[in-house]
Design a protein that fits this description.
The complex is a heterodimer of chains A (293) and B (306). Chain A is of the alpha/beta class and 293 residues long. Chain A has helices spanning 45-63, 67-83, 85-94, 99-119, 123-127, 160-171, 186-196, 212-221, 235-245, 267-271; strands at residues 26-27, 40-41, 129-131, 137-145, 148-152, 175-179, 205-208, 227-231, 251-255, 274-282. Classes of the chains: A alpha/beta (293), B alpha/beta (306).
Amino acid sequence: MERLKILKTYKIYIGGSFPRTESGRYYQPVNHKGDKLGNICQSSRKDIRNSVVEARKAFSVWSEKSNFNRGQILYRIAEMLEGRKSQFVDELIFQSLSKSNAEKEVNLSIDRLIYYAGWCDKYSQVLDSVNPVASSHFNFSINEPTGVVGLIADQNTSLIGLVSLLAPIIVGGNTCVVIASENLPLSAITFAEVLNSSDVPAGVVNIITGFLDELIKPLTTHMDINSIAYSGKSEKIKKQLKESSALNLKRINVYSRDWIKPVSQDLYLISDFQEIKTTWHPIENIGGSSSQY
Amino acid sequence: MNNYTNKVVQPDFSKSPRIDKVGVEERVSKFQKRSLKRETKLMGLRMALSMIDLTTLEGKDTIQKVKQMCYKAQHLHDVFPNLPKVAAVCVYPSMVRVASKLLDQSEVKVASVSTSFPSGQSPLKVKLMETKFAISEGADEIDMVISRGKFLAGEYNFVFDEIARIKEVCGNVRLKVILETGELITLDNVRRASEIAMYAGADFIKTSTGKIQPAASMQVTYVMLEAIRDFMDKTGIKVGMKPAGGISNSKLALHNLVMVNEVLGNGWLSNEWFRFGASSLANDLLMQIIKSETGIYQSSDYFSID
């Protein structure tokens, strides 16, 4: 007798565990052939709330880790993704991609994680500065993580769009709440499993699935989210972001890049999620004491 | 206020009713499953806010810290109108004067812990003196601790007499008796200590000092509420309840209110008869209230720390 295949339940990822949505609802997106991708959690605002609580809790843990250690963990994510490549490729094919495109997307996602892992203990050397000032002060600017970031992931890709923004966000010490692609949610949840086994502390990344229309408002109005990243071109969403982010002056970052291009990665994506802190430190008059140096 | 000891026949405390732990847990879990509709929830949140004894009981307390807390007691979150004030502030005796001066004109009361809080390990003479001192400094309420060591050694009369003597000194000042349930080990002991405290003249019984874990678990509070109900049935005297320690979020506070309502009835649903001893609960309630009324999830970044 042929063995019955066990179907996977795609659940959301909050605070390092995989609960079902609090609302108990689900939806069934389909691929180009009309096959149902699965029963996907149709999350509610309460799942957003729970995610933000976990992300806030994790923020001190994550941002206080040394940059070097965060880099190691990012590298670990890439390693784990490499080990599960075939599963990601299969899921992308199931979500209507050709085999070659699927392989390309997964490979690129791994490389992108490595790219940002490499930046982790270097970006501050490039972005921070010692500033010339016209008084007896040692004046320096350092980059600090913005806080809890709400990421509305690219809707047109399942994996690469998510990874391309998630990596620069967490590299810089932020924690984040992700709304995955509504119609292509499988890779996001499987990626959560990768995160879960990569020494990423619980709550650093929280991934929820569901209807964008319903989830954007609670995400963007939430007072405990400090920044919103949106990848996409919808004017309606951009307007909504600006309006509701005004409540607590969230930093909004909107991208319309083609993430599948190898050049769609750079240092400035890290700095988009950093706040610059400048310190004026009084010192003795430099002009008069040059011989001391 | 009440001269219980003269009117009421004392029972033999060694024969206090035994508590069925499994039954208590079962019953308590029911209170946590009640569905509260929006209006009720909002009412509950506001009610809980008005029942808080805003507390600071640290070795590191300073006059400034107490001043700040007294300000907060009257101005919980001024940007949002029509919020209730808390019931009282709770401080060490040395801080009572500062607090009572600041709260003189307001309805917020000043409660002082006493009797060598939190351990209670000092002679009765000292405890009486401390209590007198707190009252003379302007305390409206006294939170005393019982001698847990004596209680566990079975010296119930000692514990009883101590409470009765403190009550004598208190006169019209309301006396809350802290059982420190985390040190009483069993629910049977919680029930017995509750009875001793009430028969000795407590106006309130209170779970914990907040210094020992576990503190105000639902189970413990439930046993104490039942003791209050039985005491009321037997003697006609109404005693208040104050769970303290560990009630840090709105959900727990609402569960407690549901429980009080179902065990004792709504006669206890006011800050005259029910209090929460807490410090971080206030901000969570505020955030929930504002969330419920505006639909926007709040951040602790926008609320005062103390």
